[in-house]
Amino acid sequence: MFDFCTDPAAVEGTQWLACYLTTGKHMNLYFSVFTVLALLAVTAPSALAFGFAGATAARSPLLPLRWLGKGYISLVRGVPDIAFFLFFVIALDQGFEWLRHQALCPDWTAPIRQGNDFVVCQAAKLPLSSDPQWVHEVYGFSLAVLTFAIVFGAFAANVLFGAMTAVPHAQMETAAAYGMSRRQAFWHIMIPQMWLYALPGLSNLWVVLIKSTPLLFLLGIEDIVYWARELGGFKSARVSAYPHGDWRVWYFLGLLVFYLAFTVLSEKALGRLNSRLQRGQATVGADATGGARS
Fold first, then answer.
1. What is the b/e burial string over 112-138, where b = at least 16 CB atoms within 10 angstroms of the residue's CB?
2. Which of 12, 139, 173, 184 is 20 to 30 A from 150, comparing alpha carbons?
3. What is the enclosing helix (H) or strand (E) of 113?
4. Domains of the chain, with CATH numbers?
């Protein structure tokens, strides 16, 4: 990165530190921060979409659809998150390969399940062995996002279901009296007011999602936790141009500061959003902040 970094053995002090912090592996560490932020940026709306679909299904007048929505919420919330994260990644990967296998290799006669092995034709593998490395990384990241969205979508569905229930039923009856259909009342009366009741629960869920991003490390993605452990470990002069002792405590302390700062900023932003939503709303929360005045 710097001109004086040509010979690592010839630098010391702040120059050594500057050279050390700008190595290729450290660039991967800095890039992994964007990986975490990208995961949050994509997963949050995806989980909200799953949650909205699950909550809507749980309130459906159709019994099978209602069972499906409530079953999704109860099943995912009743199993440890890490079990679902590890299960879904494998299940989704094999499910996609099985579908491609059925479409691309109809003449295949050997069983797909061969003992503990899952064997599909070469053309059905995802990604293909001939694909560049970035394709493998994007595919793994996409599976992780989908897994996060499915798991956290169930928690979001539970929050949204409760928020929909909290909207006064008298308002829905008034909408029907004014000639609104069930669908019109749902979209124009319930949904706009639902967010005020849902935001506290969704705020907590957002914080939990932030704290769950290190699970990317368990899913085989080189995230910020992976690089902190990799770079912080003991490095001798034989394996590194910048040898050092066991510095993992400092790297993980940096992770602690990063996650705490991100959480504090998120809470402030969500607090302002909550105050904005409460303006003009005749609720206990709005009365407490002076939002509803006669």
1. beeeeeeebbeebbbeeeeeeeeeeee
2. 184
3. strand 113-114
4. 3-288 (1.10.3720.10)
Task: Specify the higher pLDDT residue, 294 or 204.
Answer: 204
- The two tokens of residue 258 are 């990063």
Whole-number Å distance between alpha carbons of 72 and 67: 8
What is d(CA 8, CA 288) in angstroms, rounded to the nearest whole number?
A: 61
pLDDT tens string 104-162: 998 888 888 888 888 999 889 888 888 898 888 888 889 889 989 999 999 999 999 99
What's the rounded Cα separation, in Å, for the pair 171 and 173? 5
Residue 252 near residue 232 (C-beta atoms within 8 A): yes
Point out which residues pair with 263 in neighbouring strands. Answer: none
Of the candidates 139, 101, 140, 137, the one whose C-alpha atom is nearest the C-alpha of residue 118 is 101
Helix (H) or strand (E) holding 118: strand 117-118
